[in-house]
Amino acid sequence: MSNSAATSSWYEASARQRVAALVDRGSFVEFIGPEQREISPHLALFGLPEQFDDGMIIGRAALGGKIVLIAAQEGRFMGGAFGEVHGAKLTGLLRAARQIGHDVVILFDTGGVRLQEANAGELAIAEIMRALVDLRLAGHRVIGLVGGRAGCYGGGGLIAGCCSRLIVSEPGRISVSGPEVIETNRGVEEFDSRDRALVWRTMGGKHRYLIGGADVFVDDDTGAFRQATLTALDRETHLGLAGLQAEQQRLERRLQRFGAAKDAIDIWATLGIADAARLPDLPTETFLRQVADKRESADDAR
Amino acid sequence: MEKLSFTLKAPTAAGGTRRQAIVGVVASGNLEVLVERTLPVDACTIDIATAAHGFGAVWEAVVADFVARRAAGGLRISVNDGGARPDTVALRLAQSVRLIEEPEA
């Protein structure tokens, strides 16, 4: 459990390892830690094992000397899914951040809402989005990090869309309906969830970065996530009507421009990227150089 | 869920001064182990909640071996198990006593 970890995989790390590697060494103080055993009140009814932190780790830490509040989802427990306690911990953290005046960093790793406590989970998503927007309206940043094995799906994708800044790595995926959900509802001709290349070029970090669904693209590396978060914490932030209207117009333009595309590669070609089909194979630096002046950017709204 | 509880005599007191430590996650074939320094130095309790029923004898053998070989005195150990194999359980228990020995950050 080293937290120096200059070149360790974000994807492979646990939520606790990610927090330790992200923040200033030894600065993390957990709220409602596992010793308080604030577990899900629902899982036992289904004969399912509980986790003492319910898959959500929250607390306070320093990043580059600046105090932030931080939340991390454990994607391996219940797919990082939102339940009653899991969600309430994040809602409470966001409300506390507004009261005491701190930025928040959220380490997403979630398949969405936990089916066994779906009503509580859906309510939690709504409460989190409200608390997040209130915090942003008060002038604070909410920075989302996506690069875990569960990706960022369902209500997690909605919350991510509310963040002031999203940092994503190639293994990270952001969407609302996941691959299996689309295939189940619309058939394999619509989306083949077993086609990993298709999943990644449709929902993966590179594509989200290219169409303005994420703001910063980094290597799958804890040090890279830390550096990008430090930069994001220094950036001006403002949420207001003008920005939202500009973002709405950008999304309308995006739909007009790419709405007829059958595949992400068509979108990349329309963006003017040469040899678009090769983008998934490019290492980070080459990729960033190749798309620098071509990608869509959501900076107007953020 | 099956719940098991063991109270054992621990020959070696846990090292370090941390109050608690946690390792692992609850997932298929995995488990989390929470250790808290709350007991007399010669005692160790292990409470287990497991998704796999009917393996009490295996758990008893694993925890007896653990307490005999590792510095577990004074620890209240709580386990949430997602159906891990005995070798994984032994590894996580060993990691937990190693972590609570580490100097405070």
Features:
heterodimer, A: 302 residues, alpha/beta, 7-stranded mixed β-sheet, 11 helices, 7 strands, 12% strand, disordered N terminus, B: 105 residues, alpha+beta, 5-stranded mixed β-sheet
Structure in words:
The complex is a heterodimer of chains A (302) and B (105). By secondary structure, chain A is α/β, with parallel strands linked by helices. Chain A contains eleven helices and seven strands. In chain A, strand 4, helix 3 (118-137) and strand 5 (142-146) form a beta-alpha-beta unit. Chain A is globular, with a radius of gyration of 19 Å. With 105 residues, chain B is an alpha+beta fold. Chain B is built from two helices and five strands; from the N terminus they run ββββαβα. Chain B has helices at 56-69, 86-101, and strands spanning 2-9, 20-23, 31-37, 43-50, 75-81. The model of chain B has no long low-confidence stretch (mean pLDDT 96). The A-B interface holds A 1, 14-16, 25-26, 33-35, 37, 44, 47-52, 74, 76-77 and B 1, 20, 22-23, 25-27, 30, 32, 34, 36, 49-51, 78, 80-82, 99, 102, 105.
Rounded Rg of chain B: 13 Å
- What is the SS-derived class of chain A? alpha/beta
What kind of oligomer do you see? Answer: heterodimer
Element pattern of chain B in H and E: EEEEHEH
DSSP summary, beta strand count of chain B: 5
In percent terms, what proportion of residues of chain B is strand?
Answer: 25-35%
Shape of chain A: globular
Unreliable stretches of chain A (pLDDT < 50, length at least 5) are: 1-6
- Protein structure class of chain B: alpha+beta
* β-strand amount of chain A: 5-15%
Strand line-up across the major sheet of chain B: 1-4-5-3-2
Largest sheet of chain B: 5 strands, mixed
Task: Evaluate the radius of gyration of chain A.
Answer: 19 Å
- Percent range of helical residues of chain A: 25-40%
Question: How do the strands and helices of this protein lay out in sequence?
Answer:
The complex is a heterodimer of chains A (302) and B (105).
Chain A: H1 15-22, E1 29-31, E2 56-63, E3 66-73, H2 84-100, E4 104-108, H3 118-137, E5 142-146, H4 155-162, E6 165-169, H5 179-186, H6 196-203, H7 205-210, E7 216-218, H8 222-233, H9 241-258, H10 264-270, H11 284-291
Parallel strand pairs in A: 3-4, 4-5, 5-6, 6-7
Antiparallel strand pairs in A: 1-2, 2-3
Chain B: E1 2-9, E2 20-23, E3 31-37, E4 43-50, H1 56-69, E5 75-81, H2 86-101
Parallel strand pairs in B: 4-5
Antiparallel strand pairs in B: 1-4, 2-3, 3-5
